[in-house]
Amino acid sequence: MMWFTGPLAGTRVAGSGTFSVISKGPMTNMAGASQANGFFGAFLRFSGLHGIIIQGAARKWTRLHIRDGKVELLDADVLVGKDTWETEDIIREKVASDAACIASGSRGERRALCSHRRRSRTCRCP
Q: What is the DSSP letter of 90?
């Protein structure tokens, strides 16, 4: 799975907050891409990264934490079973009140297609 920002991410150019997620499709084994807007692309760039490539699968529930260009895989057991809003609240309490958070929620745990970027900018996924 690959997450990348655009070349203008973090600038004042309209629409520059877009980021793309590219992965292998579960049904076709071909590449599939999706784009989204919000603060994540800009925050990723502000952390000094243009993109993230994730290979393989974790043996336990894990969250990806990025701060100031440092990337860590941290334990996510406390987030299992939480919806996207609860996950965002827990992450912001642990990290920072203005942190950008992308969460799959409980549907993602069951491998259903659903994601969440920021409570005020997208729908809730149960």
A: H
Measured distance CA(107)–CA(97) in Å, rounded: 25
| The residue to which tokens 């934490």 are assigned | 65
Residues ≥6 apart with Cβ < 8 Å to 2: 20, 21, 22, 23, 51, 52, 53, 54
Q: Which residues face 65 on adjacent strands?
A: 72
- 13-41 confidence digits (pLDDT tens): 888 878 898 988 777 888 888 888 878 88
Would you kindly state where each structural domain of the chain is located, as residue ranges?
1-56, 57-126
Could you say which DSSP state residue 83 is in?
-
Work out the average pLDDT over 60-78. Answer: 89
E strand or H helix that includes residue 40: helix 40-46
pTM of the model: 0.71
